[in-house]
Amino acid sequence: MAKKILVSCGTAVATSTVVAKKIEEMLKNKGLNVVVEQCKASEVPSKAARADLIVTTTPVSDTGDTPVIQTISFLTGVGIDADIEKIISHIDK
């Protein structure tokens, strides 16, 4: 069964698109079955319960029990490998 990753940024236009595509590509290259969905940070509270993990470039709240990784590594290129390992550790449970 595919794990669902919710990727959020301020407006769900450019930033979350870049981050979502990189995460999806990197995880699928590692053989992981994932579904990546983008959303605005303001939409996270209504979508969090249906996600296995939230990756965000901006602070989010009301995520319930869904783990959150806040990072800009997928935009800067610094720390991507470490963040991919964090993501894998959360969805590989």
TrEMBL record:
One record GO biological process: phosphoenolpyruvate-dependent sugar phosphotransferase system
MF term (GO), any: protein-N(PI)-phosphohistidine-sugar phosphotransferase activity
Key words of the record: Transferase
Coiled coil spans: none
SUPFAM superfamilies named among the record's database cross-references: PTS system IIB component-like
PROSITE patterns: PTS_EIIB_TYPE_2
Name listed for the protein in its UniProt record: PTS galactitol transporter subunit IIB
Domain PTS EIIB type-2: 3-93
